[in-house]
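Readers of this paper often ask what the protein records in our data store actually look like. Nothing more is needed to write down the fold, since each code stands for a local backbone conformation. Below, we set out a record of this kind in full and without editing:
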Amino acid sequence: EVQLVESGGGLVQAGGSLRLSCAASGFTDDAYVIAWFRQAPGKEREGVSCISNSDGSTYYTDSVKGRFTISKDNAKNTVYLQMNSLKPEDTAAYYCSALILGNNYWGQGTQVTVSS
């Protein structure tokens, strides 16, 4: 059973930093993509960043480019999202998602709140 467990959310002041972690387990396939999504109250879920395990390529949505960095630790089966220069508009529930062999899996989410 594929499991994704997020951690690292919290309350931070604008300009601060947080690092989210997504610990993945329950699969052995090497070709997968891990993505971070977020959903603010009253808004649609949006993709924030993703990383391919096969070639390490990354993607960032425009609003976080230069501030967020996605990375992976294969030994720990964990993907990180380093979030710097946080803004109040980054406030949302952040979800980790894995695309494996055409199937999409989700974690339970972690809340990030940025105060102004």
